[in-house]
Predict the 3D structure of the following.
Amino acid sequence: MENEEAGSVEQTMAEQGYDVAPVHDGNQPIGYIEREGLSTVSDSSPISDHLRRITLDEIISTNATFADVLEALSEDPFYFLGGRNQVTGILTRADLNTSPAYIYLYDRISLLEGQLREVVRENAPEWMDAPAVDLHPEVREGIQERYEQAERANIELDPVDYTQFSTLAKVVWSIEDCWQRCDFASGDSANNYFEDVVDVRNAVAHSNLLVENTEGGLMNGRTVSILLEAYDTIEQCLDALN
């Protein structure tokens, strides 16, 4: 690949949707190129003239945790995966919109959801009638309808088990004993942090993009930094509740 012409490589990267690609010498990457950089050079020049060497700053361990990956990608748009003294792959912000990220987050959010229901059961058994919660009539009717359907099937649980996640979060940030149990400084603080968690949870549930804006900055859409903040909230709540 290192002797290919810049124009041909740029076209291939554009067709495949790649912003960055490794340059190989045999089986081992010796550097990388960025599509944006190729757009300003002669189409006939070899890409070996434009490659950038891979340094430790561009490498992330294949054993990195999900939190490590989010933190790294919030700083830079891509990393090369390193393991056993060789580069084994490439990781980009777009990879957060693939199945492994959805599966992992689904597991963590499901665990949090179950624990929040326990918090409400233990600390706010009268939550449905709590003035601080102020449930909308349609929300209340929906909970009651799902509860009654389960009751008719002899599998009824507690009404809190039939709340949607957004309603559950509202109960937690509205009732002091609940948000304190989750280690928030105030109800307003819990509200602010849970807004992103609810948003991410809905994206996971409906298979929408987790990262809507891979550039960051002031553009619209969920960035890696916002996803990281939501994930931190999830983990901090789980730590507080364990």
